[in-house]
Amino acid sequence: MNMAFSSHTLHHGSGVTRRLCLLCKDYFTRNIAITASRHHGSLVSTSLPDVDTEIEKVSVHSLRGKAMRAMQDRLKKRQQMPPSREVKMKDTQVWSDVYPTAATFKWSAVPLSVRMGYPVRRGIPPHKLGNAELMKIPNFLHLTPPAVKKHCAALKELCTDWPAELNSDEVCDKHLPIAMETSDYVFSGPSVRSPKARVVQLKVKLSVLPLDKHARWKLIQLLGKSYDKKTDEICLTADRCPVRKQNQDYAMYLLSVLFHEAHITEPWEETDATEDDMEEYTWDSGQSKANILRVKKRMIETDGNQSQLSEDDICSTEDVEKFKMAYTELCNNPETQDNLASYKSAVLDLVGLKQKTAVDT
Amino acid sequence: MFIFISVGAGHIHLLHSCKNLFSGGMFSCSRLARIIALQGRTVHLHAANRFPLADDLTVTKDHRSEYLELQRLTRWERLIKPFNEAAVMVRRPAVEIIHLIKHTNFDHLALKYVVFGRKGSGKTMTLNHVIHYCHNAGWLIAHVHSANNLNLKNKYDFIDSSSHEGMYDQPITSTDWLKQFKLRNEAFLKQLKTSERYVWNKREATDKDEPLIAVLEQGITRPKNATDVVGVILRELRLQSFNKEFKMLFAIKAMNGLFAHETAFRKTGGYIIPVEELTLHMHFKKFLEGNWINGSIVTSVDQQFCYKQPNKEYTPFYLLGKKGFDHMDPFIPVFVDNYSEKEFESQMAYYDSKSWIQNENVLTDEGKLYLKKLSERNLQS
Questions:
Q1: What is the DSSP letter of B37?
Q2: Which of B41, B175, B283, B328 is least surrounded by CB atoms within 10 angstroms?
Q3: Helix, strand or coil, per DSSP, at residue A237
């Protein structure tokens, strides 16, 4: 199959293509895989034709055949290329010397028969020789485990010891509550500075700050999305200044401003804050209280056995208290079947149907 | 495992009027009127409870079409004809509501129930069962078929309201509602009198102490006034409930539609009419407040047909929102779960008895198990 395909290339290809093919052939004769290729075409890339077979097929008498053989002879007379590096490699060599840093894939330096690329005509992916696909992708040939170990050993001399007192995360959090997160970027380019390195993230737990109830609520309002309720963590990101140090200072400034602002109570806060602004629902100010009073008053009027009660008296009765608890629970927490069940039982209690609920089934 | 449901007629004269409705030339087109009362019968809970379809109640062709015009049929209603009976499975939620209704002190303000559950778990049937009970007990029934649908259906049906500035009336929807209200409660409407004079326009007015049906006829013949008529009727019912002459059930399916924000109604120029600007919704909401006595409010919240509303959860607080929840508060939430094992079995047995299932393999143990696992015992899925 390989042969048929090669002849196809030769017959229809231009002169330049032909020459290139011959050159390739010449090149391979001194290399490893080519002897096998004559009989096992699939081992070599399908994109490279088997030139020897092609020449044999062409008539000795035809002009084309003569020309091809002449070219073959001329190429054979050329000075021989030295064997490639991978053939000369020894088992005892140090690999990190071959690939000391990140570098593009080089077929002659990697003694592995890797293949990559689009397989031509139901073949297999092309081999590594001059394979551009292998050069495009990043590789980790410089990051073998021994190489990493070497790097670490070299860096160890430059490090200082971890303070013995900070032996657990809790102790670290206690003594160093504010954490600054930055990123360093190492890359080769005309400038070694990366603009992304200036960004600073300040993280601190809200519970660490000394706040009263109002200040806590207001700080959460001021922080908005910078506060994560689940982890109770404040995360301030500063990236407006060009240098990291400036951003660090700005983040600290921001935290202190927010902290002090939270302690101030403005006069409009008491009048303009609505129910939605509050962190927690309070029953006494809401619509629900009015509803309950309406229902309760009618009950008291019609039942007639109770004396006139004031609003406060109604609100302090046991069933209303229970309802209040259940309602507040429902408003402040995610709605679950349990919440609803307790709300239901509170309502039944309120309307005096509690003892009637037992349905015999 | 037995429950006794006695569906007795509360008032003799009302029962009589109901009889007139049934046996007279005019057939009540209310959705449950075709169901015969199960008077003093022991009913097996979880079992399909069958109400035979009586001969004299067979729907004539004319009425059938009239009925279809008024309301969209549910799956259950579509099965009434092939099954030749209207069977309701007696399930815990409906029994619970009926049980509570029986023990309610009707001097207090109307108690609210909110039925909630997954799609297809049987909220509508629970509501229907309660309506059926109240109908047999001779109650007045105000029923909104689906409030979610009110926001979607007849989307070109809006005109500027004459009585409420900046709001919109819905003539067609209101007329439809009035028609089905009239067919269901004609006897009551003839007895009840208006408490004050209502002026509809320069020439037309309804005097004081005229039967309420005159107001209703006015709305049906003059669709422009229909929404105001709905408001007037609901107002009259609300005020006259304190006379304790009749008992009343207000049933709304998918009540969360009243507390939605957007509707499908779009004015030329692109203005989308919000729910707050629709007078019909306003009247229903006002009635839903429950400032009346001698009755109950049974509603359901539904995920289906939520127009541009989030519908990920099926719980009342989520679907109603804080505002709607406060409007309804205090209410009794009633959860409708998927079928239990036993309910599933009896449903399958019922389908089998009606030869409804064509594939024989379904009725084997393996087939049932397969169906059970696939559907999670939910009829809709």
A1: P
A2: B41
A3: strand
Report yes or no: B95 and A359 within 8 Å, Cβ to Cβ: yes
Cβ contact (<8 Å) for A335 and B317? yes
Interval B26-46: pLDDT, tens = 233 333 333 333 323 333 344
User: For the segment A42-101, what is each residue's pLDDT rounded down to a tens digit?
Assistant: 444 445 556 777 788 888 889 999 998 998 888 888 888 888 899 999 999 999 999 999
Q: Parse chain B into domains and list their residue ranges.
A: 131-336, 349-381
**What is the model's pLDDT at position B195?**
93
Among the partner-chain residues B3, B103, B107, the one whose CB lies closest to the CB of A361 is B3
What are the residue boundaries of the structural domains of chain A, listed by start? 88-159, 169-272, 281-351
Cβ-Cβ contacts under 8 Å, A288 against chain B: 326, 329-330
Taking the domain A169-272, which CATH number applies? 3.30.160.20
Strand pairing of B295-300 and B111-117?
parallel
Residues 6+ apart with CB under 8 A from B255: B114, B144, B147, B288, B299, B300, B301, B320, B328
The residues facing B211 across adjacent strands are B193
The Cα B276–Cα B264 span in angstroms is 13
Question: What is the distance in angstroms between the Cα of A131 and the nearest Cα belonging to chain B?
Answer: 53
Question: What residues in chain B have their Cβ under 8 A from chain A's Cβ atoms?
Answer: 1-3, 45, 92, 95-96, 99-100, 103-105, 107-109, 111, 291, 293, 313, 315-318, 322, 326-327, 329-335
How far, in Å, CA of A19 to CA of A3, rounded? 18
Residues of B in contact with A356 (CB under 8 A): 99-100, 103
The full DSSP string for B49-101 is EEEE--GGGPPPHHHHHHHHHHSPPPHHHHHHHHHTEEEEE--HHHHHHHHHH
CB pairs under 8 A between A and B: 77
d(C-alpha B381, C-alpha B339), whole Å: 12
Q: How far is CA B307 from CA A259, B147, B257, B258, in A?
A: 43, 11, 8, 11
**Would you call A288 and B329 a contact, using CB atoms and an 8 Å cutoff?**
yes
Q: Pick from B326, B335, B340, B342 the residue to mutate for testing the A interface (most A CBs within 10 Å).
A: B326
DSSP string, A241-288: SSSHHHHHHHHHHHHHHHHHHHT---HHHHHH--GGGSSS--GGGSHH
Q: Tokens standing for A238?
A: 């500063």
Residues of chain B neighbouring A352 (CB-CB closer than 8 A): 105
Q: How confident is the model over A324-339, as pLDDT tens digits? A: 999 999 988 888 999 9
Q: Per the confidence metrics, is the pTM higher than 0.80?
A: no
Pick from B84, B160, B99: nearest CA to B356: B84
